[in-house]
Amino acid sequence: MAREIKSNPFLDDDDVDDNEFLNHPRQGKSGYILSNNSAGSEQNQWEIRRQQLLEERRRIEERTLQSTNNSIGLLHESEQVGILTAEELVKQREQLENIEENLDFINSTMRTSQKHINSLKSIFGGIKNYFSKGGQQDPTVSIPVDVSERKHSTALNNTIDNLKSDTRLIKTPSPVATKSTNNIEEKLDKNLEFMSMGLGRLKNLAIGLNDEIEQQNEMIDTIHNKADKADETLEYQNRQIKRILKK
């Protein structure tokens, strides 16, 4: 009876025979290499992973570039709004100056009318006031201020002119980046430079707006005081005229 040969459980169908392994020539410093399938597959996997990482990097750079483009656009819009606000403040300053000038004229007119009222009170006092050049003024009458002597601030006007003349920051964002890494980095650097410059311009504009608002607040306080003074003087003169008419 033939003896059945049992298969070795430690041998696999894919295992290489010892003689084949020993007879196979050496390849480089890596020793005995029987097949390149495993190494090639691993290399392909690394190449695929590298391409995936490069693609992910490109998408991140494109999103970053688009974000900087949007930021430049917002800076440009903010600057335009700031310039329009500054121009409105300049117009408002002119209106406040006209109001103050009119109040000065009213107070000056009341000063003259007070002299006439005083002349009606006393004939001799009227003659004296008529020929007097520098008589003592009524304490209720304010001295008009020469408009030409006012110190007008032109800082905000200069800021507006400088911003309009400097056209470096315009709304021309860089297009979406290509696959060239150097091109993307150059566009990002340029956008960051524009953003830094835009923030500096907005800072100067904000300082100019703040200074102008503070100055106009002071002008409003001055106008309020002059208006109160004119109102008090008008009431005082009305009482004087009523007393004269009763006599």
TrEMBL record:
Gene3D superfamilies: 1.20.5.110. The keyword Transport applies. Residues 1-41 are annotated as: Disordered. InterPro entries: T_SNARE_dom. The keyword Nuclease does not apply. Residues 11-20 have a biased composition (Acidic residues). GO terms for cellular component: plasma membrane; presynapse; SNARE complex. Residues 58-120, 182-244 form the T-SNARE coiled-coil homology domain. One of its GO terms (biological process) is protein transport. Keywords: Coiled coil, Protein transport, Transport. GO terms for molecular function: SNAP receptor activity; syntaxin binding. It comes from the Eukaryota. Belongs to the SNAP-25 family. This is Synaptosomal-associated protein 29. It comes from Trichonephila clavata.
